[in-house]
TrEMBL record:
Belongs to the lyase 1 family. Adenylosuccinate lyase subfamily. One of its GO terms (molecular function) is N6-(1,2-dicarboxyethyl)AMP AMP-lyase (fumarate-forming) activity. Signal peptide: none annotated. InterPro entries: Fumarase/histidase_N (IPR024083), Fumarate_lyase_CS (IPR020557), Fumarate_lyase_fam (IPR000362), Fumarate_lyase_N (IPR022761), L-Aspartase-like (IPR008948), Pur_lyase (IPR004769), PurB_bact (IPR047136), PurB_C (IPR013539). It comes from Mycetocola lacteus. Residues 14-308 form the Fumarate lyase N-terminal domain. It holds the Pfam family Lyase_1. It catalyses: (2S)-2-[5-amino-1-(5-phospho-beta-D-ribosyl)imidazole-4-carboxamido]succinate = 5-amino-1-(5-phospho-beta-D-ribosyl)imidazole-4-carboxamide + fumarate; N(6)-(1,2-dicarboxyethyl)-AMP = fumarate + AMP. Pathway: Purine metabolism; IMP biosynthesis via de novo pathway; 5-amino-1-(5-phospho-D-ribosyl)imidazole-4-carboxamide from 5-amino-1-(5-phospho-D-ribosyl)imidazole-4-carboxylate: step 2/2; Purine metabolism; AMP biosynthesis via de novo pathway; AMP from IMP: step 2/2. This is Adenylosuccinate lyase. Transmembrane segments: none annotated. It is an enzyme of class 4 (lyase). Residues 329-449 form the Adenylosuccinate lyase PurB C-terminal domain.
C-alpha cells in the first residue's frame, strides 16, 4: 500500500477548514510570527524614537518601510522564517534575524543591535499572543457568536406568541412560548458577550525575570518601567508591572473560562433544539441534494446540532485545560505554557465551527405550531397550578373558605390526565368569586402563558 501525501491531521485544517479559516489570520503559526515581527519592529521604533544610546529617530519613510515588514507580511516571509528556524531551533530568534535582515536591506545596520534589545523571548511572545488572541476574538469569534444571537433574537420575536408546553424534569409543566424560551438563551449569551468585551489583554515587557535588570545596567538613568508601560499600552494592551519571566496568563484563563461558559450555554441550546426536533416541535427544512441516512431515505438528521454539541465539548475541554495550565509556572519560568498556547486556535476553532453549525441549523428548521397546540391540548392537568393559585387569592380576599387548595388540586390532577370537561366541571363547583371563576373557565393550556410574549422585549 502506498503512503498518502501529507494530510492535515486536524479536521479543522481539513474538511472544516472553510468554516474556521478566519482564525488562521491570527491564531496560526504565521499569524503569531507576524505579531512577533510587529512587536520587534515597534520596539526598535520606540528605542530610536527616544534617541536610545545615541541613535537618531527614524524618518517617516524608514518607519513605514520597517512597519511594512508586518503590515505586508507574506508567504515569502513565512518560508524565510521556517528555513531560519530549522537552523536556529528557536522561533523568536528566527524572527529577530528576519528583522535584522530587513534592516540590512534598508541600510539601517547601525541600529541592528537594538533589535530584540534587553528582551527575553517571552517579552515578544506574551505581547504577540495578546495581540493575536484579542484580534481573533474581536474580528472572528465574537462576530460568529453574535450571528447566532441575532438569529435567536429574530426567532424569539417571530415565535413570541407560539404557546408551548414546558417540560420541567421532562414532565408537562406551566406553558411558555417558543419565542420566550429562545430569548432566554439569547439573554444568557448577551451577558457573556458583555463580559468578554471587558477582557483585559495584559502584556509584560521587563526582561529575563521581569526585573529590568539588563535594562538598568545598559542605561541606569532611564525610567524603564515608564517606557515599558508606554510601549505596551501603545500596542493597545494593558501593562502588567509585576511578573516573572512570563506574563502570568491570568487574563487568558479568565477569557477562556468565559468562552467555555458561552460554549456550554450554546451546548444547552443545541441539545434543546435537538430534543424539540425529536418531539416534532420543529420540523427540518429539506436541503437540496442532502442525504439524511445512507439506508433510510425518509430521514433528515439534526446533524447541525449534533456537530455543534461535539465541537463545543472539544472546545471547552481544550480551553478549560489551557485555563488550568497557563496560570501555573514553576518558579520564574517553565516551558509548559509554550506548548499549551499553540493550541489556542484549536480551542477557538472548534467553538467557531459549532457556531457556524448552529447558525446554519437554526436557519434550517421551521416551527410546527400545530404540534405545539396538540401537545398543550393533551395536558389540561397543567392548569392545576392556575386553579389552586386563584383559590388561594380568593381565600386571602375573603371570597372563599376552601382549605388547602394545593392538596385539593393535587388530589384531582397528580399523575392523571384531566381533560377540558373535567376541569370545567371542577371549576364550576368551586366556592370562589364569579369574576375569578370566569377567568378560570376561560383559561386553556394555550393561553396560560403569562407574560411570555412581553418578556421577549427585554432582549437588548
Amino acid at each position: 500500500m502506498t503512503s498518502l501525501p501529507i494530510q492535515p491531521l486536524s479536521p479543522l485544517d481539513g474538511r472544516y477548514q472553510a468554516a474556521v479559516s478566519g482564525l488562521g489570520e491570527y491564531l496560526s503559526e504565521a499569524g503569531l510570527n507576524r505579531a512577533r515581527v510587529q512587536v520587534e519592529v515597534e520596539w526598535l521604533i520606540a528605542l530610536t524614537g527616544r534617541g536610545a544610546f545615541g541613535t537618531s529617530p527614524l524618518s517617516d519613510e524608514q518607519i513605514d518601510a520597517l512597519r511594512a515588514l508586518y503590515t505586508e507580511f507574506s508567504q515569502a516571509d513565512i518560508e524565510w522564517l521556517a528555513e531560519k528556524e530549522a537552523v536556529t531551533r528557536h522561533d523568536v530568534k528566527a524572527v529577530e534575524y528576519l528583522v535584522r535582515h530587513r534592516l540590512s536591506e534598508l541600510g539601517l545596520d547601525s541600529i541592528a543591535e537594538l533589535t530584540h534589545f534587553a528582551c527575553t523571548s517571552e517579552d515578544i511572545n506574551n505581547l504577540s499572543y495578546a495581540l493575536t488572541v484579542s484580534a481573533a476574538v474581536q474580528e472572528v469569534w465574537l462576530p460568529g457568536l453574535r450571528r447566532v444571537i441575532d438569529i435567536l433574537r429574530e426567532l424569539a420575536h417571530e415565535h413570541r406568541d407560539a404557546a408551548m408546553l414546558s417540560h420541567t424534569h421532562g414532565q408537562p409543566a406551566t406553558p411558555s412560548t417558543m419565542g420566550r424560551e429562545l430569548a432566554v438563551t439569547a439573554w444568557r449569551l448577551e451577558r457573556i458577550v458583555t463580559q468578554i468585551q471587558q477582557t483585559e489583554y495584559l502584556g509584560k515587557f521587563s526582561g529575563a525575570t521581569g526585573t529590568f535588570s539588563a535594562h538598568v545596567v545598559a542605561e541606569p538613568e532611564a525610567n524603564w518601567p515608564a517606557l515599558s508601560k508606554e510601549f505596551v499600552e501603545g500596542l493597545g494592551l494593558t501593562w502588567n508591572p509585576l511578573t516573572t519571566q512570563i506574563e502570568s496568563h491570568d487574563w487568558q484563563a479568565e477569557l477562556y473560562g468565559k468562552v467555555s461558559h458561552a460554549n456550554r450555554v450554546l451546548h444547552n441550546l443545541a441539545t434543546d433544539i435537538w430534543t424539540y426536533i425529536s418531539m416534532g416541535y420543529f420540523t427540518q427544512i429539506p436541503q437540496a441534494g442532502a442525504t439524511g441516512s445512507s439506508t433510510m431515505p425518509h430521514k433528515i438528521n439534526p446533524i447541525r446540532f449534533e456537530n455543534a454539541e461535539a465541537n463545543l465539548e472539544l472546545s471547552s475541554a481544550i480551553l478549560d485545560s489551557l485555563a488550568a495550565t497557563l496560570v501555573t509556572s514553576r518558579m520564574q519560568r517553565d516551558l509548559t505554557d509554550s506548548s499549551a498556547q499553540r493550541n489556542i486556535g484549536v480551542g477557538f476553532g472548534h467553538s467557531l465551527l459549532a457556531l457556524d453549525n448552529l447558525a446554519r441549523g437554526l436557519r434550517e428548521i421551521s416551527l410546527n405550531r400545530a404540534a405545539l397546540l396538540a401537545d398543550l391540548d393533551a395536558n389540561w392537568e397543567i392548569l392545576g397550578e392556575a386553579i389552586q393559585t386563584v383559590i388561594r387569592a380568593e381565600v386571602a380576599a375573603g371570597r372563599s373558605s376552601i382549605e388547602d387548595p394545593y392538596a385539593l388540586l393535587k388530589e384531582l390532577t397528580r399523575g392523571k390526565r384531566i381533560g377540558q370537561a373535567d376541569l370545567i366541571a371542577f371549576v364550576e363547583k368551586l366556592e370562589i368569586g364569579d369574576e375569578a371563576k370566569a377567568r378560570l373557565l376561560a383559561l386553556t393550556p394555550a393561553t396560560y402563558v403569562g407574560l411570555s410574549a412581553e418578556l421577549v422585549d427585554f432582549l437588548p
